[in-house]
Amino acid sequence: MLNDGPWEDWMVALFIFGAIAVSMLAAGWTQWLEHKRRSQAMDIIKIALEAGKEPPPVIYEQINKAGRAKPPWGEVVVFSALGFGFWIAYADAPADDKTAYLVIAATMTVTALGCLALAIMRPGGGKDDESA
User: Fold this and answer.
1) Contact partners, residue 116, CB within 8 Å, separation at least 6
2) N or C: which end of the chain has fewer CB within 10 A?
3) CB under 8 Å to 62, separation ≥6 — which residues?
4) Which of the 8 DSSP states describes residue 93?
5) For residues 65 and 2, what is the distance between their CA atoms, to the nearest angstrom?
């Protein structure tokens, strides 16, 4: 392992940037796929109505399902990775810089645990939730 401090700082920054970039790309891809799914469902409904037929109920269920909140598993992964990176930076930091890394590492870890709790409880996924 290299002993020069600036190189390690760049590696931590690169790790954090990579984690954020990957999570943003994954979120964008997921949103695009969801948009395509909704657009296809709306096209099927439009074609069926123009033909004078009732669209299949499964299409309406798919559109309704798309509007529900999804568990934040992606956020669990991102904040866990960021927390892990800052815990490593905290362990390798000089004594003068440890406090900043500790605060950020603890914040990322608590946020990851909060997202994990939300993902396990599955907000918005209840069968009785008719607010959509």
Assistant:
1) 76
2) N
3) 37, 41
4) S
5) 51
